[in-house]
Amino acid sequence: MPIRLSGLNSGLDTDSIVQELVSAYRTKQDKYTKAQTKLSWKQESWKDMNTKIYNFYSKTLSNMRRVGNFNKKTTTVSDETKAKVTAGAGVVNGTQTLEVKRLATAGYLTGGKIKQAYGGQITNDTSLSALGVKSGNLTFDVGGERKTIFVNATDTVADLTKALGEKGISANFDVTQQRFILSSKTTGVGNDFSFVVNEGDTAAFNMLNSLGLATEENFEAAGGDYAFSSNGMISGSSKFNGLDLDSTSPSNDLNNLLALSYKIPTGTMKFNVGGVEKTITVDENSTWNSLINDFDAAGMKLEYDSAKGGFNLSSKNGTDAVELVAGKGPDGKPDDSFKVADSLGLATKKDYQDAGAVETSGMNLATKQDATNAQIILNGALFEGESNDFSINGLNITATGVSNGAMTITTSTDVDGVYDMIKSFFKEYNELMNSMESAYNAPAAKGYEPLTDDEKEAMSEKEIEKWETKIKDSILRRDETLRSVMSNMSMNMAKVFEVDGKKYSLASFGIKTAGYFNAAENESYAYHIDHDEDDAVSSGNDDKLRKMIAEDPDGVASFFTQLANTVYDGLHEKMQATSSSSIYKVYNDKQMQAEYDEYTKTIKKWEEKLQAMEEAYYKKFAAMETALGKLQSQTNSLSSLFGG
């Protein structure tokens, strides 16, 4: 806006005069500005109201339209310490039997207590090399899938547990107990885990053994089958299935050469028999018959057990203890005594350790608890699963303990659940209708119009807020669109529906409005449920609704789904897109926006007119000031001529 210096010659307040002259134009502009502001408030009010209506339509009514939502069940089990049971929509009312035979468990491996080579407590920061671990691959099966990680001797305990975790095994090192504790991440046999040691793979076993993770199974794989020593007798491993040492036919195996028939190495075995060392020699000419005779001559009895395919060794007198004497040879490897005895299946676990067949110094094998599947018997049928959760024909069963025999599952209609759903529906319906009725019946704001900037300058912030709130609260007063929506909904709610040949209305279920003269202000459309303890209007009446749900749940579902569908369809019709409204809008949002845009154009035109008129008047006053200035100059000149 240009800076004007006016009234210098005339002494007039030109600005005030010009503003007064154009005030009629400014009044016109303000009129349209106020109308546009009021329209924007109406748009905002309708936007908020439409959101409430649409939410009721798309959520509340949609939920009530589905008959399946009324099919609520409640289920109890006779021993809740052994199973938790809930019922879905498909479960029929009645009694069923349930027995929990076994729980699903995860696989657990509790490692043996381990030590550092130089002593001291092991922590998560301890290097694996300090535990005697050599770099190499660690192979294991998880959930039926074989996986491998490379273990570097420079890794820490924490590095190992992290690597195992990334491959599907939950791993932790218990610093207090100084041992690893591992588990499968989920229950069930199919999710179990185990470390893999191939036959004769002593390197893999030694790594596991250093970590305290080696199991009995790993030991057997690394060293082959081994014998058991009990009560002074050696019960050999099964290595000779198919050997015929009991036959008397000429084709029996007694005189077969050992070295040729079963690859028995030659060498000398040493046994301690009752404290006396005995020697048995096997050479290239030894046969099964001569071997048996040699043991007999040394005071021992070697017998072949055809059922297991292995030998049993004991003293001839049956009282002296028999023990293999095995160790390491000069090269640090197992000696001949161990090799020959092992080939005959007579080496025990202790012999493996003494001979160094595997590195077992300080060996403390891990304890493995295999994962199990859950087993339940429902109505006589066996079901098995990897978790303790079962979903069978609508029943959701969580087994929590092994039961002592069969339990009873009782299923019935969830009367409270259905009742609460219907109650919630009417609570939301009442809130919506009360909100619309309050807006429709709002007090008039006669004489109140949006304020101009000049008017606001003369008022405090609180006064402005109070003034504008008065207008906004009344913005939908007597709105015909709002009245139409309320009428549509209330009319549909009052309809009668047929169920199994009988006609029902909401009043049949003890659900009624309070009546025009008894209802609270702006609550004439609200419904009240008889015997609802939260409703002072109807709490003292008999409970019809709950009684009908218990007696005829299907009939109740049929009525209320018909009711919900009717109200839904009515609102759906109101929310159709038209030339003046968008889809899912009950009000003419398009028309309002068009009016708002038209106001913007009109206001701009009047603003341009106002500026033009102001400019014209200022030009006229400027010309007057110029003329007066010239006249003043001439007067001064004449005065000076006449000596004035």
Features:
alpha+beta, 39% helix, 20% strand, 4-stranded antiparallel β-sheet
Written account of the structure:
This protein is of the alpha+beta class and 644 residues long. The protein has 4 domains: 45-68 and 416-511 and 545-588, no CATH class; 73-104 and 373-413, no CATH class; 108-220, no CATH class; 227-347, no CATH class. 39% of the residues lie in helices and 20% in strands. It is built from 16 helices and 26 strands. Strands 1-22-3-18-19 form a 5-stranded antiparallel β-sheet, with no helix packed on it. Strand 18 (374-378) and strand 19 (381-385) form a beta hairpin. Helix 1 runs antiparallel to helix 16 and helix 14 packs across helix 15 (553-574). The longest helix has 53 residues, at 589-641. It is elongated and about 165 Å long.
Number of beta-strand segments: 26
Number of helices: 16
Query: What shape does the CA trace take?
Result: elongated
Q: Specify the structural class.
A: alpha+beta
Roughly what percent helix?
A: 25-40%
Domain count: the total is 4
Q: Uncertain segments of ≥5 residues (pLDDT<50)?
A: none
Strand numbers in spatial order across the main sheet: 1-22-3-18-19
Mean pLDDT, all residues:
89
Distance between the termini: 42 Å
Radius of gyration computed on alpha carbons: 49 Å
Strand content: 15-25%
Largest sheet: 5 strands, antiparallel
What's the arrangement of secondary structure elements?
Blueprint: H1 14-21, H2 23-65, E1 73-77, E2 83-87, E3 94-102, E4 108-110, E5 136-142, E6 145-151, H3 157-166, E7 169-174, E8 179-184, E9 193-195, H4 202-210, H5 216-223, E10 228-230, E11 233-235, H6 258-261, E12 267-273, E13 276-282, H7 288-297, E14 300-305, E15 310-315, E16 322-324, H8 336-343, H9 349-355, E17 367-369, E18 374-378, E19 381-385, E20 389-392, E21 395-399, E22 407-413, H10 415-440, H11 453-457, H12 461-473, H13 480-493, E23 497-499, E24 502-504, E25 511-513, E26 527-529, H14 544-551, H15 553-574, H16 589-641
Antiparallel strand pairs: 1-22, 2-21, 3-18, 3-22, 4-8, 4-17, 5-6, 5-9, 7-8, 10-11, 11-15, 12-13, 12-16, 14-15, 18-19, 20-21, 23-24, 25-26
Helix pairs in contact: 1-16, 2-10, 2-15, 2-16, 4-5, 10-14, 13-15, 14-15
